[in-house]
Amino acid sequence: MLIFNCTEAASKFFSRVHKGKKITPVDAKPPSPIIEDDELTGADEQWLVHAITVQRKNVLLAIHVKTRYCMIFAEAKKADVEGFVTRFVERWASGLMINALHHDLGQWLDPDLMLARMTQTCESQKFYRRSHRSAQKHIDEIAWIFRDKVAHTGCLPPDETAAMVFDEQMNDTPRNSKGAKDYYFPDEEMTLHWLRHYGFLDDVQLHAAKSRRKQIIQEIAAIKRAEWLEEYERQNSIS
């Protein structure tokens, strides 16, 4: 089950008034005031959702409470719960698959199994009016960066691909949270979470996948450094 914990702004976004009556999917009485105190099944996913306005357009930000993996949805249609869920699931699945393949994790992937498992998890959703102080701080930071980027480019992401690029940049930013021993990267944490819960990898396989991912990151960084040095030397030879 997808559990969307909505801030006050997100709760208002998902609500509408029809014939003088408020219609909302958001339950003001969650099972527990503290997200971590919920009694979850292995297939429950806790997200915090916030709503902001940028260039007079509605923008939703969703962050995974456990891994701090985030996604941003520009020009969201107010009170369109079904549209948001569809967009959310497609972005989440696509982003994870692309990231995994980009880091050469194909040998540990069973796309059909993983997507079937994700589909099962995403079939039902709960919306609660509930906050999370630590995750909210990260959302506020991401929202600030997003506003600044839009101010510089002059426009919101024109399509889902552009939005995914922003997601990738934010998820490649080191984070820290209560209970974590050190800083971590949300994209790595979510990838491992995904492989464990949707790919059914054991600890040995997860360790191997994590090691391969880090190796690829180092190789990519080395290539970029070599390209930079080559360009630097070329510029100096010209001058």
Task: Describe the structure using short key phrases.
alpha/beta, two-stranded antiparallel ribbon, six-stranded mixed beta sheet, single chain, 239 residues, 7 helices
What portion of residues belong to β-strands? Answer: 15-25%
Q: Strand count, sense and closure of the main sheet?
A: 6 strands, mixed
| Uncertain ranges | none
Order of helices and strands: EHEEEEEEHHEHHHH
Count of DSSP strands: 8
Counting helices, strands and paired strands, the structural category is alpha/beta
Query: What's the end-to-end separation, in Å?
Result: 61 Å
Radius of gyration, in Å, reads 20 Å
Instruction: Classify the helix fraction into a percent range.
Output: 40-55%
Task: Estimate the global geometry from the Cα principal axes.
Answer: globular
Strand order of the largest sheet: 4-8-1-5-6-7
Oligomer: single chain
On the 0-100 scale, what is the average pLDDT? 93
Total number of distinct structural domains? 1
Number of helices: 7
